[in-house]
Amino acid sequence: xxxxxxxxxxxxxxxxxxxxxxxxxxxxxxxxxxxxxxxxxxxxxxxxxxxxxxxxxxxxxxxxxxxxxxxxxxxxxxxxxxxxxxxxxxxxxxxxxxxxxxxxxxxxxxxxxxxxxxxxxxxxxxxxxxxxxxxxxxxxxxxxxxxxxxxxxxxxxxxxxxxxxxxxxxxxxxxxxxxxxxxxxxxxxxxxxxxxxxxxxxxxxxxxxxxxxxxxxxxxxxxxxxxxxxxxxxxxxxxxxxxxxxxxxxxxxxxxxxxxxxxxxxxxxxxxxxxxxxxxxxxxxxxxxxxxxxxxxxxxxxxxxxxxxxxxxxxxxxxxxxxxxxxxxxxxxxxxxxxxxxxxxxxxxxxxxxxxxxxxxxxxxxxxxxxxxxxxxxxxxxxxxxxxxxxxxxxxxxxxxxxxxxxxxxxxxxxxxxxxxxxxxxxxxxxxxxxxxxxxxxxxxxxxxxxxxxxxxxxxxxxxxxxxxxxxxxxxxxxxxxxxxxxxxxxxxx
Length: 494
Hints:
Helix 1 runs antiparallel to helix 9. By secondary structure, this protein is mainly α.
């Protein structure tokens, strides 16, 4: 490829075919995650799947008099979706240790192997315990992948492209969701084992990630941190496509030397100077989930059936939403290093708030406990959901993974990001486990619930979130935290 990259204010680099290949292969960890998000909602809406594992729910949804908002309310059905995220929560802490001791690349390899195992077990499932165990293996794979891949992408990206490169992870998440919706749409007519095909095909992105993990390089910071400085320098030359990497390499070495003063990164996370990054990294994960996005993406087919769409029509609507999700992520890739992180987050907060409030208002006034929405009104709801997904896809979706990789120094980066990943998985689990029950009890007001959170998110981004655009990770403490009007006081004793 050998395309000359624009020189950053700090270091020289150009984009080569090799580094581009590393970005793409690693980003398949995101596709793995996205495929699971998309596939589970479609599978739980398939009659064959429900008849085999959840016959009571299948019978319940056949009754026309059943409350629209409550016909899918079942804790075991929700556990099928949410068990993955509980497993990922626990796995992310082990993944942090593996990332630190063995490196980013072996962690990515392990993620792919767990995910393939989960796909095989779910596809062959004959009992609920096999399903749940398969989901747990999926979860361990997601925990390892979501820990290692964003770190990997941020650490091998040149500073002036770091935002765009890291967002490849989220782009591939959206592609995974879209592919899953496409497969669900096709397999919904394959009886009685269409759901097995949907779940089993998760092994494909897992296998590509496994192959990729054998091809990609280890990141220079990880190599230097583990005492392999010469390998780290050669890796830096390879991913930068130039021989003159001395300035950047010395910054990495200095950062790793500083990190050696801290024997216990977990203990250092509790220090006063670590609080700003810990607070921002975890709060943005909580807010990402309380936009309501995963409630929509997990259960889009179920949601549209609740609104009166037929099963095939609901899957088609999910397919449209998935395509919007993919295309909108390119907006973030294009503009994140031009406009910065905060502007995208603030704009999207306004658009997401309007979309959620409008959906809630329509359902409150037009959807009764029985019956369905008028066709024209149902179409408006789909458009509003697309508007919501669109704004999320260029803001809180990718920024939730990008920003936590940029705000920690090397000594606490893997540990801090592990806490961020586990927080994300914890709240993803809570939303996945509770959404159908919340929809049953709160009805249309659930959209107003998420709207209130979006207001809080906008205020958070405006007052507390620092801008990290174009700042080398090694300089983030000096150029971000120590000059921020709120967070600088945490560094006055330094």
